[in-house]
Write a structure and sequence with these properties.
It is built from 8 helices and 17 strands. It has 405 residues and is an alpha+beta fold. InterPro entries: Serpin_CS (IPR023795), Serpin_dom (IPR023796), Serpin_fam (IPR000215), Serpin_sf (IPR036186), Serpin_sf_1 (IPR042178), Serpin_sf_2 (IPR042185).
Length: 405
Amino acid sequence: MDSENRKQKLSSALDTADGSLSKMDRRNKKKQKLSKSQVIAIPSLSKELREAMKKQNDAALDLTCKVIASEARHSNLVLSPASISAALTMMAAEKGSSSDELLAVYSEIATVVFADGSASGGPKISAVNGVWVEQSLPVDQSLKALFENVFKATFTQVDFISKAEEVRIELNEWASDHTNGLIKDLLPPGSVDSRTEKVYGNALYFKGAWKDQFKKSLTKEKEFHLLNGKPVRVPFMRSYERQYIGVYDGFKVLALPYRQGRDDGTNRKFSMYFYLPDKKDGLDNLLEEMTSTHGFLDSHIPRDKVLVGDFRIPKFKFSFMFEAKRALEGEVLVEMYHKACVEIDEEGAEAAAVTFVGMRPSCPRFMPPPPKRIDFVADHPFLFLIREDKTGTVLFAGQIYDPCR
């Protein structure tokens, strides 16, 4: 892909992410005070808020596919729509284009999804926001209060003009500190300079244990089929236990639930989903169907456990990074840097992501599986998601073309 076409597609990806925020209808909803470290009980979602969250989750899938098209058409990819959305929501608040509904959606996600559940045996989750502003610029105190109270963001005035490189190093250290050291050196030299006025950041970390862990003694090396037809040998996790598998026309969906906390008052549930096309070269067509079907994720959730025959999931560990640039009105240049990583093994999954956004001038019905054993052999390219099922929030999304890389 030539450089100019790639830049246009990356800009389109940023437009999609930003557009998904600004298109939400304005509604009067009192902002909730967020809990940073505790899971708290909340009432059921209103119909309007639930629909708004569905729109955002559709946009998350659309963003994933646009980044795939521009950056990783036939290669491994992982990103965090939730992290990107958090950073862009703060930018929207700065621009004055965030509606009450948008802030209500973020508040719901922060309260239900981002609260750490490790103390009660659930997933370890950390979501941290930060805003860095050039110290010579005037500070809007009401906006500062919004960042600190709604987004729980640290608000820091820094010297971009004469100490840009020091600030860049500080931002990279912040990213590493809040992702258990998994995200390092996200901002390259030159990404922050004397013209930078503001940087919005989000760091997201997730570590969860499978509800039903795999036995290491069953893990065996088998062949994974690359798109070019060549096989590579990788370790596959295996199981003979019943699994949540949905069988659809041309593909299957597997849901692997994570262990829940004992006193999780939100009734939230985290799961990892695997979308496996029947054809070894069928992932492109599956992605097209997913993005063209409104509410695809919610309408393709396996509800029942089924007997399995040959059941294999590859272990994998990799990271992915991309950047996007877009010019706004008033000769303002917005630059987004995003990096994510993921690892799954017999015990569970660990994933992390950081997003920095800088500003400078310049469905088909569910088809019950047949009463027989179902094979789910992920030995060819597939898509995966880590998702909170109550809100539908997509924390991480990606695809696997080669587990060895």
